Amino acid sequence: MLNLSQFIDHKKILIKLLVYIFIASSFGCDNKEQNIKKDDYLVYVQKVKSESYSQKISLTGEIRARVQSQLSFSVTGRIIERLVDIGSHVNVGDVLARLNSVQQVSEVASAEAGVKASEAQLLKESLLFKRQQQLLVNGSITRSEYDQSEAQFESAKSNNKIAIANLEEARKNVSDTVLRAINNGLITARNAEVGEVVQPAQSIFTLAHDGPRDVVFQLQESLIGTYRYRVNEKVQISLIENPQLKVDGYIREVSPIVEIKTGGVRIKVAIDKFPFYVKLGDPVIVTVNLSPIKVIKIPWKAIDYVNEKPAVWIVDPKTRAISLMPIVVSSYDNNDVLVSGNLKEGQLVVVEGVQFLQSGQVVSFTEKKS
Questions:
Q1: What is the block-wise mean pLDDT of the chain (370 residues), using blocks of 10 residues?
Q2: What is the reported pTM?
Q3: What is the rounded distance in angstroms from the CA atom of residue 38 to the CA atom of residue 216?
Q4: Are residues 156 and 133 part of one domain?
């Protein structure tokens, strides 16, 4: 017969055993219910199908003159007068700036004196040579004396030609102290100020010639492979201030190299009939079509992530098991993700319900109707 303490111990053991049985049965039921939920989970799928896709991109450009000239003096000097500024419209022959011409004027005076001296010497030697010719005929001088007189005459003629050439150059140097417009156009840059000493060929102004205009834009290096730019290919231009106003242009020139400063290729678009209200330097939008590529479109909500990279859930139609597959995203459209790698034709991609999926899970699926 059990005493009281033994009865209590047996009772405790029996209670613990019942608790263990209850917990184990509850855990088994939960797993069973969870498996049932997994087996019965319905997802919507889309069959992978590639299609040709051509994306439009918009790049910023700038209105520029088709012809631009760097205007400079051809002599050294100090600027004493500047008659135009950025934005000034000039006509061919207009005076733009002047250098101090004191030295050049002094050189002209010296050259003129040299011409007069050479002319006097030439006249003297000419008269002497004619007399020597007569004396040679009469036999009054030797052949050697005649030859010496002829040489002096030829030397005087040569010196006179040199003096005249020096005078012409001196006068040209004076005219070169005045900078004139070489064409009708607009001053778009000023690179020197009054009082500055400038050197020959140093740019003083940039002149944008009147006439046809171009749009210049840079195509980034990352887009070079996807945009097959061709000369005479049409593009669309619109003003940033008023995108509704659009005009067509065509590619006129493509730089053969990638520019180091910008990291892109410079492209010039010709616009022969541009609206009158467009000004040099106005920013514009250039719309171009990228070369068509084969892509697979899937909805945004089909995207999941693995190791912080985009992926999609793939359903095996035979086993109904799912697996997470990384993908290569080409770009993003309004409602779709454009996939360019890893997916194959005919695969089934889960497009709804991805937030509740686990790798290896068995699901029921039905194809999503578009």
A1: 42 44 44 45 90 82 92 94 94 96 92 95 92 86 88 94 94 94 95 94 95 88 66 86 84 86 88 74 85 83 90 93 90 81 89 87 84
A2: 0.59
A3: 59
A4: yes
